[in-house]
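Most newcomers find our protein records easier to grasp once they have seen one. A learned vocabulary of local backbone shapes supplies the integers on the structure line. An example says more than a description, so a record of this kind follows:
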Amino acid sequence: MNTSPRPPTPINSPSYPTEFQQIILEKSQNFVGRAFAFTAISNFLQHCDRGYFSIIGAPGSGKSSILAKYVTENPHVLYYNAQLPGKNRAEEFIATICTQIAQTSQETSLPSLLQQVSDKLEPQQKFIIAIDALDAVNRTNQTPGSNLFYLPRYLPRGVYFLITRRPYVRKQSGLLIEAPSQILDLAE
């Protein structure tokens, strides 16, 4: 069956860095299916008041495309891609995400910014940060034993992370979290 490509979905958030806008468009263009993934994300967001939702799968399984499509359909979601050259270091992640969160704030502590955001959320509002390719993080300059990208162990109410990564042994995950979490394994 031949179908013509769908036009690119516009990115509705001017806060995405240009290099992220391009990859979101590339990954979400011509995306179809995978409704089960979006249902799982929605269910997690509805049933947990904060947390980490992970999409895991082998290379080429569609993790990045699912996340890109989610971002295009939910323009309030902040986006970061660790696979891009120079974007796999914690200091680059912190600077980029903190800039997206608060254009005018001098605060550079992610946990402090997330708490400020949480304090301003209405009871049913959600603040979501999507991180693609968490397995691509370069940990050489991070404090030993710290979370990948210094992601917070605890999350304030209404704050969520949607992450994609390849499968790994839990002991080698690089994440220690004390928040609700769920894994969607695309191999299942």
Remarks:
- The radius of gyration is 16 Å.
- Residues 2 and 30 are 12 Å apart (CA to CA).
- Residues 1-14 have pLDDT under 50 and may be disordered.
- The chain is about 30% helix and 15% strand.
